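Data card: per-record layout.
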Amino acid sequence: MTTKQLYLDGFSHHLHGSASRSRALCLEKASSKPSGLARLAGRFFPKKLLSLPPIVKNAKGKDIKPRNRIFTLPVIFWAFLAQVLTRNAACRDALAGVQASRAAQRKAPPADDTGAYCKARQRLPLAILRNIFNAVGAWIDQRCDGQLPLLNNRVVRVIDGTGASMPDTKQNRAKWPYAGNQKKGCGFPVIKLVGLFCLRSGRMIKHAFASWKQSEHTLARQLVGWVKKGEVLLADCGFCGWGLIALFQRKGVDVVMRTHHRRKAKAGIHTWKKPRRTSAWGKTLWRELPEQLRMRVITFNVNIKGWRTKRVSLCTTLLDAETYPDEAIIELYLRRWRIELFYRDIKVTLGLDVLRCKTPAMVEKEILMQAIAYNLVRALMLEAAMTHGVSLDRLSFKGTVSRMREWARCMNQNAERATRRMLDELLQAIADDPVPLRAHRSEPRAVKRRPKSYQLLTKPRHKMVVSQSRRKK
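The structure for this 473-residue chain is written out next.
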């Protein structure tokens, strides 16, 4: 009879046969395999960013060894990322993915309670998420040269703002209050977010967020350091302020913006004098700005069906009309609409319009994780465009997310060669499914499906009494 269990240490494995040892080695090898999502998206940043030193510091500054946890740093990161890539995915869905992965490795799965997973997400260091976000952005920047050449091959950045709501908890309300005219217990905390994007690749470069009461100009000033000298900034009329333009021009950044509706100027070269300082600007910074700006104004008529505005006025610091003709400036501004599509990908496809975390610290991590997920999808799209020679503008973000989720499920326990083959087929599938050309498409902003006729919440839920007539309906 062959013994399958080694009872005494030091005895040779020949006493109990080799089957158990080979089985143990097989299980050990399987347990070291990364998940399918890690194989697919982990190529865009160094693996060492998800590793912690063997000795860490506790709250008192003493050296301690980290505990042997089920939810290690790589496990919790990839579970959190999978949750973000699936709109409206709950913590239970992320936990189910960890349980399935542990079962495939013949390890004990974690309990069904999501408390351990939520606590593990709270331990996820924000600094590591920032490093991963920057590493993915660097990967994209190194490879997007030649994509979408615009304005004499100058790098164009585009900026705009948006908003998002979050769960109505005491902690969230303390940092991000309700928007105006909302009763207590009947609204949701709201944040204002300003993002800086690359027009060539679509990646998010940096973002800043604050309460809805904060001005977009103030948030935009936090992003000035992320626009480099010689680049061009593209923005809407909401950012057309004298101080912000002067701040970018002082750094050597040219701007192309839609002229603010309060500023009336004819086409040509104009001198904008320095206005009186507002309370939003500090005295020291305002003194450093020049006394006047030389601006070029371009006006043109819009004859596109569906456009509400028929005459548009642009202002720019690109004064050389021979190097930068009016047609090139107009064509560049018409591409500003792409940032609205970027926000649609983040808010609608990934679900950033309604955040799910209940504390400010986790809300910040969720926003950063959404940005990482968005840039990872953009990196995969860029790789498909470069590999198969297709236009990056024609690739579908939503289609890439769907294929990314499904391919990752089948890449869990495959061999390295099979994984490489599946990756090649994934890039081919993304490139073979271009979006239709819809130049100047005009569709009304209307919803066909009617909402449910529920009574609106006008009081806190525990105080609300629904009338009998509404119940019968």
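Known properties of this structure: The mean pLDDT is 84. Residues 146 and 153 are 8 Å apart (CA to CA).

See the next section for split statistics.
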